[in-house]
Write a structure and sequence with these properties.
- The chain has 331 residues and is α/β, with parallel strands linked by helices.
- It has a single domain, classed as Alpha-Beta Barrel (TIM Barrel).
- Helices cover 37% and strands 17% of the residues.
- The protein contains ten helices and eleven strands.
- Helix 9 packs across helix 10.
Length: 331
């Protein structure tokens, strides 16, 4: 039986104890195919509020790479502090958590002027027991200037109180999480992604050249893709030398462009059996050094339209672990 390298195991091996990610949602952040810079309407599957449990302020103010000012920065810093402290306290009380990564999760968290990013990232790293950042973004929403700054953060020494006498880590852990989704340009166009795969390759390569850690997000069940195409996306993502990977099934939620296609009969979601089979094949392809950050996703509220098997992540995980066990793999 082979133990898979989960992101949890990676952190425990490196830091000597479990590291907890604290998800953060900051109002004012958006992306270029929502604000109309590269496309309109967002990705066809995107209904951001369903992915933003911490976001309570639906401000109309939106940042972009060309913003000259940010009058809401102080409010954003307060949001960051409130969300971090609330979740940290809960994790400490429930699990005895001692080390944390601040995860800028919702929206596109490099799609803002560098001064804003610096203020938010520096604030996050100043919190007690934080050993790093994980920044969710798109490959068309990051700049060389931002990558240079993140490279400097990754070389910054951790405070002495966070160091371990039995483990050799010394610097902050800086991850950039990119939505790869698919390597096929026709698919990216179909889902209104707003960029091509060449853009993904360019910026992941640049990020790796800075010795930053990269997590790639892949979606199985995208329109008109068969299993062979999905597995090709896995292969090409591996070739990009990513450090971790997240697998997601494509599901339909209310108030999305995908929901309209679904209602017209133009889209049929992936079956649970095909998803699990594709996932197992993908995991078996992964080199030992690529950690697995997620094997599935779902949404357990009434915004889910289809497939209904995505509304119970606990049942999904039971079936996935059982399928892995049959392949002598332990997750």
């Amino acid at each position: 039986m082979r133990q898979l390298l989960t992101i949890g195991k990676y952190f425990k091996d490196k830091f000597g104890e479990k590291v907890y990610k604290i998800p953060i949602s900051i109002s004012g952040f958006t992306c270029p195919n929502i604000d109309g810079t590269v496309a309109k309407g967002g990705c066809t599957f995107c209904e951001n509020e369903s992915f933003s449990p911490n976001l309570t302020d639906k401000s109309k103010f939106k940042l972009n790479l060309k913003s000259n000012e940010n009058p809401y920065l102080e409010k954003q810093l307060l949001q960051l502090e409130y969300q971090f402290k609330y979740t940290k306290e809960r994790l400490e009380n429930k699990f005895g958590a001692k080390k944390f990564i601040v995860y800028f999760q919702s929206f596109t968290n490099t799609y803002a002027p560098l001064d804003t990013l610096k203020a938010l990232y520096e604030k996050a790293l100043s919190f007690e027991n934080v050993i790093g950042l994980s920044i969710g973004t798109r490959t068309d929403c990051i700049t060389d200037e931002t990558l240079n700054y993140l490279e400097k953060l990754s070389k910054r020494a951790l405070p002495n109180y966070l160091l371990s006498p039995t483990h050799s880590y010394k610097n902050y852990e800086i991850w950039v999480e990119y939505g790869i989704q698919s390597i096929f340009d026709e698919t990216l166009e179909k889902i209104n992604r707003g960029h091509d795969f060449a853009n993904v390759k360019e910026w992941i390569n640049k990020t790796k050249q800075k010795d930053l850690l990269v997590c790639g997000h892949l979606i199985f069940g995208l329109p008109n893709e068969n299993q062979e195409m999905m597995l090709q996306t896995v292969t090409e993502s591996i070739n990009l030398k990513i450090d971790s990977i997240k697998f997601h099934p494509l599901y339909v939620t209310k108030n999305t462009l995908l929901a309209i296609d679904y209602q017209k009969g133009n889209f049929r979601p992936i079956s649970e059996n095909l998803y699990i089979d594709t996932l197992i094949k993908s995991i078996k392809m992964l080199p030992a050094n690529i950690s697995i950050s997620r094997v599935t996703a779902g949404i357990g509220n009434d915004s889910l339209i289809d497939p209904l098997w995505c509304n119970d992540k606990h049942q999904q995980m039971k079936k996935i672990k059982s399928a892995l066990f049959k392949e002598n793999l332990f997750y």
